[in-house]
């Protein structure tokens, strides 16, 4: 039966203002008291998600940077994959980064090319923030994720260029319409979820997963019981035609579905 709940954050577990709804936190605490295990799977930085987990008040594995990092409930890193440094050095140059807000995620640090106050609204619960850096001059070592933030039309064109030029040497995905993310080619939330399931000795058939965007695809394909949010990206819905949709994050859809599923 169900033993593990894996969930995305933005557009899924969090409210539209990117904070934890109290009803959702209480639901997860009630399920933890019943013995359920949790994995938070997100494109966000580990340091940020660690703070969100504290607000939720649960023990949970943290799958961050879309699976480039996995930490256990005691903050022990159990999995890490970085982008090849030579590729990082190429990808942060104006040829690709022009017209975007350029961000890099390392183990403990979030680097940004120029201040972007709009991004800080995503981190109200954790208080995590960026460091401004001369990104084009970095050596490219230790980078878990590159994040380009821009208008969706611009990022669609950038996505096409990256896929055409780098093919299978990168994993390129959207976490939101204005967020294009780049990781090592073997990175995904799905692969990271298998790391967690192996650690816990839990089968995919006993795992529930919730997601709303393209970076959730592999996780939803890996879990035995996947669910799409009512507000899910149409491109994701089209790739998962047999996966049921639940309520939106606006109405706390994950918590409502879990309370029904477990009879809370």
UniProtKB/TrEMBL annotation:
Superkingdom of origin: Bacteria
Keywords on record: Hydrolase, Magnesium, Metal-binding
One GO MF term attached to the UniProt entry: hydrolase activity
Keyword Metal-binding: yes
Keyword Transcription regulation included in the entry's annotation: no
Cleaved signal peptide residues: none
Requisite cofactors: Mg(2+)
InterPro entries named in the record: Cof, HAD-like_sf, HAD-SF_hydro_IIB, HAD_sf
Family: Belongs to the HAD-like hydrolase superfamily. Cof family.
Protein name as annotated: Cof-type HAD-IIB family hydrolase
Lineage per the UniProt record: Bacteria, Pseudomonadati, Pseudomonadota, Betaproteobacteria, Neisseriales
